[in-house]
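Subject: for your reference before the review

Hello V.,

The reviewers asked for a structural picture of the protein, and I figured it would be easier to keep everything in one thread rather than splitting it across files. Below is the amino acid sequence we used in the manuscript, unchanged from the supplementary table.
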Amino acid sequence: MYTTPFHIVLVEPEIPPNTGNIARLCGATCSVLHLVGKLGFSTDDRQLKRAGLDYWSEVEIHYWPDLETLKGSYPEARFVYTSKKASTSHASFTFLPGDFLVFGKETEGLPEQLINDNPLTSIRIPIFGRVRSLNLSTATGIVLYEALRQAGRLEDSPAM
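And here is what came back from the structure prediction:
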């Protein structure tokens, strides 16, 4: 096993299968999962566990009452905020090992003020056509795997 290069932060996730899928993604990439604020479900929810299958023991999960408490616990960390309202594409952003990749709740995303206050560390995934947004677990996978690619982690992954 190798050191954990990235952290996934979900702020007030609402849909259990999304969080379960993201937990599984974190387990598969040795990323840490941070759940922030009021969750829209119980973490012992059957759907949540079903989406994560039997990989829950492979995921390091931390719970935080709010984003400020999380940030205060990692004062040297860089937080990268995702929003369809950000101007920088995830594909042109330079990720650094140890980044905290922050995603908002399914129905609202992250607060617009948070994106406005952090323009240099706010990113978006380009969307073409009339679709307004991507599924939270899909978006998380896209951003995390780009960060892993940039960190050279995909070339080092063991074959199964």
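For the response letter, the relevant points are probably these. Residues 7-150 form a domain with the Alpha/beta knot fold (CATH 3.40.1280.10). The mean pLDDT is 89.

Happy to draft the paragraph if you're swamped.

O.
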